[in-house]
Specification:
Blueprint lengths: L6 E2 L6 H15 L7 H17 L3 E2 L8 H12 L4 H9 L2 H5 L3 H8 L1 H9 L11 H18 L2 H15 L9 H18 L3 H15 L1 H36 L4 E6 L2 H11 L10 E7 L2 H14 L1 E2 L5 E2 L12 E6 L5 E8 H9 L3 H8 L11 H13 L3 H10 L5 E5 L5 E5 L4 H8 L1 H5 L1 E6 L2 E3 L11 E5 L16 H33 L13 H11 L4 H10 L4 H14 L6 H9 L10 E3 L7 E3 L11 E5 L5 E5 L3 H10 L3 E2 L1 E3 L7 E10 L4 H11 L3 E7 L7 E10 L2 H12 L4 E6 L5
Parallel strand pairs: 4-8, 14-19, 15-17
Antiparallel strand pairs: 1-2, 3-4, 5-7, 6-7, 7-8, 9-10, 11-12, 11-13, 16-17, 16-18, 20-22, 20-23, 21-22
């Protein structure tokens, strides 16, 4: 699995190399004191198998390859992971690099260990179009395995950490790709799961290999600064220890230094010089209980003046990855800014190890469940997104959205705290609560005030979502939602809805085309017509009846061609077409009372679109154009765009007609010539409101010295009769000189 690929030798290079590997395993054994004797023996068994499987393989450094799995297992042992995880760590490259099969691992070590190893194995054998697609598919598999068992990602992060520590042994040409991948993907995952020590190390190692010169320069500057400020830090530590002793509070104080990468990022983001970065040094104050954190804060604020705006309480409101501490920045000796973090011992373990803290606690207290749920909501969301997103690249896009570490904390009306990514909107909040609430969201209130759905959430907002009984997601939401969960849920719902609408439309169109062939009804799906449908599907190349009907509705198949094939198959089986029905349907296809026409009432959804070039409304003579993959596009008969399409693509036109019962209003354009002057637009808008129409768009000519100007309105009307009433109302308005319905080209 490692970035450092094995080199194969014919035999072990030397007894010294073998001794090195044995010594490494001895060092691992020393870390296994928390395991039972039988578990240690299982780990040893896995080591022997891995050692044999990697026999003759070397790393780029010249060391035996087995040293890499041992180092990965050692990191997992530091997290006190169980025996299964340590066995998987030792075996994690066995399938990929050694030709060992998954069934063999199941037989030797059991299914749980084999599943962990399989989750870590790249998809080497599949054919991918691009390297990026291969990478995305590998991450998808790894993340899904991780969602089922978090130990997968812990082993993977240990693997990546060791590879980054030894990246210098690889050719320099490979540094950039591996370091960028680590910085963009693995470090954020470590942060998302609360593995802060790993997160910081991966960032620093990536920085060292991406920008060696900058890293070396900053390292020297930090070393010089450390020498200059040693006295300041020592004096601050002495004064702080004395203050806590005087207050009778037992504490453990650890010095903390900002990592080189975080210093570099701060300099880069805020355009600072190294000398201007003041909070390089800090202290962690570790106490025995939560109340002592706040007492310690009071002691420190009495000793040194706090910097305004630099206090954060992550105990009352933990970070999204479970991190808890009090943060404050104080003005220490000689005006030096020093950050202090107050936390309990338990918080300190979680702060450094995140989800791995679960195993650390189990090692001490097997019944304890502290921090067991860290990260589990995010891990579960991976499975939800995968359920709706089969495309690997799209899945990875959704996941990357959720890997940004910044978060805002908002409240439900019942005072439940919700952590959301920075930039998240009301719609993201609704989908975080439940996908059904997200789908039915119609309005929202923040702090009791009505707000648009695209409003970004801020820390401390109280958010109330208002839902409707029969609504669905708006495609426009995809333009502003921030979370991967919301994006995938909206896309999935819209795709499902569009396919359902297209299938219903396709069924209507095929039934209509069959009537033109003299067949009264579309054959059902029952046993009597199974052979007919099977032969039709072989002809069309579709997998199922639903797929065929959907393709017809989307314009990917021509209904008349499929109908002719079905009719011929029915005739072969003895069905006689109705000659009277055939003549009536074929020869009245373009008359106003055609039974063959597809009836439109406005409820067709995305499967039927009303052309924006001519804006047809009920009462207009209309034609339907079967677009390629976009369903039926309805034009007016005299539309110049439709006439051009008829010359070029006449077989894709179908008969359509308006239903007697309509379900909504329809948009059309009006072109007005008015006298120029103040208040004209208001008078025209008032006349339109009086005629009971909604204005959806207004376009005005730029101001000019002429006495008249043109206005273009897009309005929603019921039908042509309603439009005529609107035009009469406008003509009675004094400022209006002329009104006409806009046509294509106007």
């Amino acid at each position: 699995m490692g970035a450092l690929q094995p080199t194969v030798m014919n035999a072990r290079s030397s007894p010294a190399a073998a001794n090195a590997a044995a010594a490494s395993f001895a060092a691992l054994t020393a870390k296994l004191g928390y395991l039972s004797r039988s578990d240690v023996e299982l780990v040893r068994k896995a080591y022997r198998f891995a050692d044999e499987a990697h026999l003759g393989q070397l790393r780029s450094s010249g060391e035996p390859y087995i040293t890499h799995p041992i180092a990965v297992a050692a990191q997992c042992a530091d997290w006190k992971l169980d025996a299964q995880a340590l066995m998987a760590a030792l075996l994690h490259d066995a399938i990929e690099d050694c030709g060992v099969s998954k069934p063999e691992l199941i037989e030797r070590f059991g299914a749980p260990v084999a599943e962990l190893v399989d989750g870590l194995t790249k998809l080497e054998k599949l054919a991918f179009n691009t390297r990026e697609e291969n990478q995305a598919e590998s991450f998808r598999k790894m993340l899904l395995a991780m969602a089922r068992d978090v130990r997968v990602i812990l082993i993977k992060l240990a693997d990546r950490t060791h590879n980054m520590r030894t990246l210098g042994d690889l050719p320099r040409a490979k540094w950039g790709r591996i370091a960028n991948e680590t910085l963009d993907i693995y470090a954020p995952i470590a942060h998302r799961l609360g593995l802060n020590a790993t997160y910081r190390e991966l960032q620093d190692l990536s920085f060292r290999h991406l920008h060696p010169w900058r890293y070396a320069t900053l390292s020297k500057a930090l070393s010089r600064s450390r020498g200059r400020r040693r006295d300041v830090i020592r004096r601050a530590q002495n004064e702080v220890e004395a203050a806590f002793a005087a207050a009778g509070i037992q504490v453990r104080i650890d010095g903390r230094e900002k990592t080189l990468f975080s210093i570099y990022r701060k300099m880069n983001d805020k355009h600072l010089s190294f000398a201007q970065v003041t909070d390089i040094y800090g202290f962690r104050v570790i106490v025995d209980q939560v109340t002592a954190c706040y007492t310690a804060l009071g002691v420190l604020h009495q000793l040194y003046k706090p910097l305004p705006g630099k206090f954060k309480d992550y105990i009352a409101i933990p970070k999204i990855n479970g991190y808890q501490s009090l943060h404050t920045t104080l003005i220490g000796p000689f005006g030096t800014n020093i950050e202090f973090q107050m936390r309990t011992e338990a918080m300190h373990v979680v702060a450094e190890s995140g989800v791995a803290a679960h195993w650390l606690y189990k090692a001490v207290d097997p019944l304890g469940d502290t921090s067991q749920n860290l990260g589990t909501q995010w891990l579960q969301s991976l499975l939800d997104i995968q359920h709706e997103t089969r495309d690997a690249s799209e899945f990875w896009d959704h996941i990357k959205i959720d890997l940004f570490p910044d978060a805002v904390y908002v409240f439900t009306p019942k005072s439940q705290i919700m952590a959301m990514p920075r930039g998240a909107t009301v719609v993201d909040f609704a989908y975080t609560i439940h996908s059904d609430i997200g789908h039915r969201t119609v309005a929202a209130k923040i702090n009791s005030e009505q707000v648009p759905l695209r409003t970004e959430l801020r820390n401390g907002d109280v958010v109330e979502v208002i839902t409707g009984s029969v609504v669905s997601p708006n495609p426009g939401w995809l333009g502003f939602v921030r979370t991967g969960r919301a994006r995938s849920k909206i896309r999935h719902h819209l795709k499902t809805m569009a396919l359902t609408e297209s299938r219903d439309l396709g069924e209507k169109m095929l039934a209509q085309a069959l009537r033109a062939e003299g067949i009264e009804q579309l054959p059902s799906e029952d046993e009597a017509f199974r052979s007919l449908w099977d032969r039709t599907l072989r002809f069309s190349g579709n997998r199922s009846r639903a797929d065929l009907l959907t393709d017809i509705g989307l314009g990917k198949r021509i209904a008349s061609i499929v109908a002719k094939r079905m009719a011929s198959l029915l005739i072969e089986s003895g069905t006689k077409p109705d000659a009277l029905l055939m003549s009536r349907e074929r020869f009245t296809a373009h008359e106003s009372v055609s039974q063959a026409a597809l009836l439109l009432d406005g409820s067709e959804g995305s499967s039927v679109q009303f052309a924006s070039c001519c804006h047809p409304i009920p009462g207009d003579d209309i034609v339907g154009y079967l677009g390629h993959g976009e369903g039926v596009v309805v034009h007016t008969e005299d539309c110049s765009v439709a006439q051009r399409l008829q010359h070029r693509d006449s077989e894709r036109f179908i008969a359509v007609a308006w239903s007697d019962e309509l379900t909504r209003t329809f948009e059309t354009d009006l072109l007005l010539t008015v006298t120029a002057g103040k208040g004209v637009l208001a008078r025209v808008a008032s006349a339109l409101a009086g005629a009971e129409v909604n204005i959806t768009h207004v376009q005005m000519q730029p101001e000019s010295v002429q006495a008249t100007t043109e206005l273009r309105f897009t309005i929603a009307v019921e039908d042509r009769i309603h439009l005529a009433r609107v035009i009469r109302s406008l003509k009675r308005t004094p400022a209006v000189l002329r009104v006409q319905r806009a046509k294509p080209g106007h």
